[in-house]
Amino acid sequence: MNYNDPTFVSCDGFQLATYPDGPETATPVLMIHGWPELAYSWQTTVPALRDAGYRTLPYDLLGYGHSDAPKAVNHYGIANLVGHVEAILDHYGIQKAIMLGHDWGGIILWHVVRMLKQRTIAAISISTPHVGRAPIDPMAIFEKRYGKNHYFVEFRDRTDAVEALFNSNPDAFFRMMFRTSPDGVELTPELTELPRRFADYLAAGAPDNGKMVVTPEQRAVYTDAYRKNGFLPGMNYYRNTTANWELAKGLSTQIEVSSLMISPANDFFLPPSVTDPMVKTVPDLTRVTIPNCGHWAMWDQPEAVNTTILDWLTDRGF
């Protein structure tokens, strides 16, 4: 995967950067990254899948990396994001693909396998479970449970201030974020306060606390990308939470394709326990927990992630 040599796909008047690899006639795997990431986050995954005979197709989501980055929030609604997946498949003449997502890519993934079921062979999510539609607006739930400083709420209510804060030092932002997670950490309201935590981190001089999951050279790829596009496009995904919830009213909660749910054991934002309800909505579900692994699973435990994916694909005959 050469991250500096994308192939562009046109959709909705924008250009999406894609990075196809592997035999064109092989089973395709569409790879959807999360926040605050890039298609580059699949750098450790692509070689394993390609060498096993799959065609890999990671791409920079709209607003990220080499893809176009419009400012308006409406461009980042879930219907648009699912439409981007369809446009990429059409561009490459792919009828059906295995869908692989991490973090926000998992949110998109679970919508894709319902809205584009006819284009989906199987679903693999890392960290992000499929969840049923909340009884009320999820933003109200986040605010009540965690307070007004929860990052979803701050992205909505203090957009300009948070954008300016994150943009002030992208390298420090990734030094804070891309670290391993210790055992036994449980999610608290304080941990969800990403803007406040980053402001405190800067005030403390951006110390090197904890083990990084990326090298300085790998971190520089993210830093350079976010210096170019800024953090607003990624925040716009979260700012569509209410609109996405409203749209999901008409969607079935059932997932009708074979699905693999990979949970990092030390992901305190999305611990393995949050996948328990999936047994009711995903009839053909395999759940695997990766030990000694935090949220940034592809960087933290790449061999375990790759082995889990390939073993499951082999067992299922995909």
From TrEMBL:
Taxonomic placement: Bacteria, Pseudomonadati, Pseudomonadota, Alphaproteobacteria, Maricaulales
Domain AB hydrolase-1 per the UniProt entry, residue ranges: 28-302
Keyword list, A-Z: Hydrolase
GO molecular function term, any single one: hydrolase activity
Pfam families reported for this sequence: Abhydrolase_1
Keyword DNA-binding applies: no
Record-linked InterPro entries: AB_hydrolase_1, AB_hydrolase_fold, Epox_hydrolase-like
Keyword Hydrolase: yes
The name this protein goes by in its record: Epoxide hydrolase
Gene transcribed to yield this protein: ephA
Coiled coil: none
